[in-house]
């Protein structure tokens, strides 16, 4: 728990100098984060189911091609399946973390914000692993660049509402 608190403070220090949302905007996002996350969980769960279906459809298609056929090669290499399965596992983890954050976010508990922070960490690991599993230099570079942009935006909004949740609220009031 102490290492998570340290990581939380490190990321918080990175975001100190960025412009902040007005207090009213921060409060609105904090109070409504639970239903925003709920919509994200529903959309992500649908995407996970579509991803599972796509993987099974691809495997069935490749499995039905005879080796002596004219269409002996598949359009995607074996790395595509590995990358897709790893990405799917990260997506399932993130959906579970977000789903468990809804109730604490609704009551503005620190536990809800901590789950959002864990989602940031899982997403960061997912970006790095996904970039490595792209098996190409351009895929690696663009995966890291666009992943970092997405993580920066997510971290910004997550830290903008930090003071409205649990113990961080008390620490903010003392300053």
Sequence-ordered SSE layout with sheet pairings:
Elements lengths: L1 H13 L8 H41 L14 H29 L3 H23 L4 H24 L5 H9 L1
Helix pairs in contact: 2-3, 3-4, 4-5
Protein described:
The protein is an all-alpha fold and about 180 residues long. It has one domain (about 25-175). The protein is about 80% helix and about 0% strand. It contains six helices and no strands. It has helices at about 1-15, 25-65, 80-105, 110-130, 135-160, 165-175. Helix 2 (about 25-65) packs antiparallel against helix 3, helix 3 packs antiparallel against helix 4 and helix 4 (about 110-130) runs antiparallel to helix 5. Residues about 170-175 have low confidence and may be disordered.
List keywords for this structure.
6 helices, 175 residues, mainly alpha
Mean pLDDT: 85
Number of strands: 0
State the share of residues found in helices, binned by percent. Answer: over 70%
What's the quaternary structure here? single chain
Q: Nutshell version of this structure?
A:
This protein is an all-alpha fold. The protein is 79% helix and 0% strand. The chain is globular, with a radius of gyration of 20 Å.
